[in-house]
Structure formats: C-alpha cells, structure tokens
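Annotated sample (chain length 800).
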Amino acid sequence: MTPRTWLRRQYRRARRLAGRLAGRGVPSSDLPAANHLLIGTTSFAARVEAGEAVTAAALAAARECLAQDNLPAALRLGHELVGGRDTGQVGAAVIGLCRLHTSGPEQAWLRFAGITDPVVVAAAAPEYFEAGFVMDASAAEREARALPGLRNADRPTPSGVLKVARTAFSVGRDDCAGMLIADGLSGTFGPLTPYQAYEFDRLATWLPDGVRRRPPELPDADLRFGVIDYKQPDNSSRNVGDFIQTLASLGHLVRHANLTFVGEPELLAFVEDLRTSVKPERLITDTAAVVHLVEVQRDGNVYQTLPEPTWAVMFGWYLHPTFAGGYNLPFNPAIRPLFISFHLNKPEALTPEAVAYLRRYGPVGCRDWQTVALLAGAGIPAFFSGCITTTVDTVFARTGPDTRTATGYVDAREEVEGDDNIEQSVGDIRRDPLPTNLRLAHEWVSRYADDYREVVTSRLHSYLPARSVGCQVTFDPANRSDPRFGGLIDIDDAAYEAIRQGILSKLAAMVALLSSGANEADVYRRWHELCAPDVARAQEYLGSLTIAAEALPDVSEGLPRADRVVVIDAGRNQPAVARAVAGLERWAPGVPVVAVGAAATRLPARVHCVTDLPLVERGSAAQRHNLLVASVLDSLPEGTRVLTLPPDALVRGPLETLFETDLGGAVVAARADVRRNRRNVAVLLRRISSRQGPAWRDALTLIAEGHRRIGHGQAPFDPRVAVLDISALAGSDWGRLARPLIETYGASWVEAMNVLLAGASEPLSPQMVGNAALEDVEGTAAVVIGLSQSRLPAAMFTRA
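Output written by the structure step:
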C-alpha cells in the first residue's frame, strides 16, 4: 500500500465513522478503544460537517488529542492533511503542534516556518509563536504584527493573542507585545472575559513604561536592602510559605537594634511592628545605619529598575520561567546577592551564564543537599545551610506561659474535619501587595506560636516554621525523596538547631558588616571566610556518599563472537522484532543479531534470543528486563562494535556507515535525546532520585554520586539507536554500577548509561537515524524509530 493510498483509506474510514457517530449524537471522546487512533480524524471530520472551518477544525481536533496524551491520533491527522490537495499547510500546522508537544521549538519550527497562509498562522498562533519567537524572532514578530489586519473571522481568539503577547514579551519583543496588548484590550480580537482583561492589564504593567518597571523613590540611606516578593509577568506565588520565608528573612534585619528603616510606607509600618516582637536574646546592638528597604521580585527582578547596589539575601525556591523566555538567572545586575537557603529546582536554569554568576557571588548556602550536589558538580562553591524559616522564631517572642493545646493540620494527607484543617496555597493573594501578604504570613505563624501544640503537615514551610516556634511536628510529605528535602527531613533537634544557629550567625555578621559601610570586595571576602569551613565539610560529606558496586550477571553463553553485532531491545513490543530482523536480513546480511527479551518463535535461526537472567530473582519485570539488556552489553566480547536498535526500528538502508562511525575515543555514538524537557542529564538524575519514595537516603546518595560523574550541562543521548565500542564500555564503570542503578534505583538501562557515561557521546547524524514521533525523518536515514510511539505505518517510511 502506498502512503497516499493509506492516507485516503484512513480519511474515508474516519469520515464514515464520524457520520455514524454524528447520526447517533455520540461525541468523539466516547469512541471505543479500537478507534483510539482515529479520534483526531473523526473529531476533525465531525467539526467540518458541523460547519466549522477546515483550519480551525483541524487544529482544535489536534489540540484535543494532545490534551488527552493521544499523540498518534494527532500525528495521523496531520499526515492525512499534509497529503491532501488543499490542506497541506493545515497539516504542517498540526504536525508543528505535535512537534512542540513532544520535542520543542526547534523541531516545531521546521514545520511552522514553511506556512505562508496567514489564516493558518492565526489559527495556530499560540504554538506557532511559542516556537517562532524562540527560533526566528524577527519572522515571528512580522507575522504577529499582521494578526490585527486579518478578517474578524480569521483572527486568533483573545486567549490566543494573550499567549502570543506573553511569548513576545518573554524574548524581549516589548513593542510587539505592547501592540498586541493594546489591540487585545481594545476588543480587536473579540470581547474579553474578566480574567483575560486582567491578564492583559497585568502584562502591560511589566512593559518598559509599566508601573512594575518604575524605579522606587530613593530616600537618603546608608544601605539599600532587598525584601523578597514573588510577583513576575508569568506565574506569581500563591503559597503562603514563600511569604513566611520573607518574614523570617526580615528577622535578620530587625534584630539589629541600631538600624533605622526607610522606604515604602506600608512595608515600613509592617517592619516597625515586627521589630517590637523580637526575642530579647536575639537582639544585637552594633553599628547604627539607615537602611532603605527595597522590594525585589524573586523571579521577576530582571525587569525591575533597582538602585545599585541593592544587597539582598537570596533564599527560597528557584526558579519559575517567564513564559517561553527561560529562567531569569543571572539576576538584575543591581542586586548584590548573599545566597543562603537557596534551592534550585530547575537544573536547566543553570546555564553557563548562571554558573559564572553563582561562582562570582558564592559560596552558595543551599537549603538542601540536592542543590549542594548540583552546584558542586558545576564547579560552584556550595554548602548546606538549611532553610531560613528555621529562624522565624526570632520575631515571635513569647510574653507569657505556653498554653497551646490544639493540633493543626496543614495540607495534611489524612482526612480531618474542622477549622484546624488548613490549605497553605491561597489563590487570591497573588494580586495583593507585599505588606499585605507579609501580615498574612505573620498571622499564619502566629497560629503555630499561639494555638497549636502539634502540627501535622505535608508542607515544608509549615513543618520548619512550626518547629521553629516550638510545635511538635509530624512531617508527612507525599514523596520523601523530593529534591527539596535532603538534609531537612527526619532530623533531630540538634541538627535542626545547628541549621538555625548557622544561619543566624552568618547573617548577623554580614548585616553588621554592611551597616558599617564596608565595600563590596570586603563584604564578599568576609562571606568567603565565614562559609569556607562549611564548603569543605560539604565536599567531604558528598564524597562519602557512594553507590555500592555490584557486578552484572554473566550472560555470555551463546552470545556471538564477531566484530559487529546488532542488539535489539525487544521490550514490550515483541511483534515488531520480526520486521526489524527482516530489515537486517536485507541491509546487514551476515551480521549476528541478539534479541533481548524476544522469544525465538518466528525469528530466523541466526537470531540469538536472550530471555532471562540466571540466579536473579529480585526486582520487577521491567527492572529484570533492563538488567538483562545491560548484562548482554557487558557480556559481549571486547573488540565488538555493537549497533543497538529498539524493536520498532525500520531498517531501510545499508548499515555500513553506522557501524563505521568514528567514536572519537568515546564509548558510544548516539542521537541527542530531543524529547521535550530532556535536555540535561541533571534533570534526568533528579527524576531517578525522586522515584525513591521513602528511601530518601538512597536518593541523596544517587544525587551525590551522579553529580560527581556528570558535572553539569551535558545533554542526554538516546542509546536505543547507538553504536557502542564494547572494549571502551568495559573500561567504564558500566559493569560495576549499572546493576545497582537498575535494581536499587529503578533506572532503565538507557538512563543508567547516561548517568555512568555522563551524557558523553559522539553524535549520530539525523541523516543516519530518524525518529518519526519527534521529528521529520530525513530521506537518507537508514534507520527510522518511533513508529510505535507515533503509530504511523511503516509504509509511510519504506523506500521503494
């Protein structure tokens, strides 16, 4: 069957099914499972028959499929439309949506860039411009400026235009964003809902002439010091725990009795109230100075106009992105940061510029050991400081006897009834000014200090501040291996107190030094001196965390001894193995084939099937299979060059060039993993560690060992199609550590290879290997994978 014939047949089948469903009033979401792959085409056909325009119908159907994680149905619809006489550009837009969903802007733009019909661009606006402003901002801006000139019926919706404006803003196209905001507010793209009107207005406040960019008033002061807020153009915080951290940070200022504060009146009033409740034993009488309190946005400070220098303790959870524009690290150049209680949740935010920035202003005191390991792997001096909320008791002096008796449940995992069952995320605080939210945070901690003897919570910033003010706390998070918790979970009173005193002493010294008028060089010199012992202890501790080695099982019996071998990981897709083997029979005759996990039934006799592990009983079926693949690679004789293939591989050309790939001294040559959000081995390592559940100590050991190996910044490769030098693999730690990574930590063999080889591979060109699910396949590719994920027929990719 030719590709064209298949496309026509699928489309006719979908239209017949759509007609039957429409006659019965059955929505496409109720299709039986057998028609899962036709949902996109059926939904499209039904929409068209109901009078919807072809372009709008196709994109709506594709978005519906992707929202249901039904990539195959969306891809099939796209390819059907690409093959149509008048629907080629609509089909390209649908495939672009799929590429953005699975891979990212680069692959999506390869399709979007060829669209010349402005109506199609407008219909695909949110996705088209998300890719376009990243890949070709000038071309994207040209198309965006043309949107208001389209006919009313062809213009994008207000929600679509809002997304485009956000994306334009995030990449610095402020004029374009401002134009779209003005047109959106004027009704050019249709009537707005209250939410849309608010969001257009809110985004406008972050434009160069917006209120968020206006410089603060500058009263006379000896020192300008930042107070952290949580607003930004994208996602502002609604977590009271964030403001509890800021509350705790203010305690390190107000405990200095000789400081005079100036600044915004409402913030100043709160701070003056706060200093009346400082514990007497925490008060410090030292240098007198006037301190200007300046609001600094955690995620949005790069857009602020701040006085230079503005000193700030930079603590907390980092970092929300700003729409499609990435993470705002480094911070605003006016900020002089003192890093303590710092958690970097997004390893991909650690760009080369961010690494240089953190090295410049380090050492970095980290809230958790996972962040210490991440930064140390990137060559940034770092240490474990714990969390600043351990010190919030500074501003909760007790003036009478402790009469607390109640138990509070804060986002507790167990069901309770009554007023003491509390949620810490509060939706309506995002719009409130900082002083209002600080008062809310103070009220929140006051309940711990005044009402609750015991607290049961799944929230880190209920557990730590409640414990700070003397509550007995049961901390029961959903995942004890969450990377935020290393060093904070299951600690005794001595360890908790060490965290609190370490932060109190360091910040007391630094605030006193800043108040004395010390210059920047002296301040950071003193910071280095204070932190150096902790950095040394952190290095020693992380170095002590090692994964216990264990040899892989020997499965060498019966394995071929040849210069070249193909290894197929059959996985759960054994029916596809026969097709892969048939392709090898044609394009790699005489090369031995090892099929891991495949039964010998209906496979040629020359295929060596390995189906089980000797003397290995533990682990799930998936772990045993991954261990089997790892063992086969370890058991092949040195001197062998191996080509790995997944079971759905379509071999359609000579493999000689692949086998002869120059490895340049590396163990493996492979394609980069182009899946969305898979661009950094550190992210992969975080995912594996987070699966450890209650075994948080194992998770921390994995993080420490992993970051020592991978450093930072390496992109993962995809060894499912790869060329391996078995001699070089034998010289690595594969034989020693792959087994514990798979058996103990639940890594796949693909993940284990990335961790142990630090993501280091020579590249395989897309002209050799293509992935039908993630990218457009080059006509020269000898191997095509992704057919199982995309569920596209092999006929579409088979050469004549």
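Annotation: The radius of gyration is 30 Å.
Annotation: The first strand starts at residue 223 and ends at 229.
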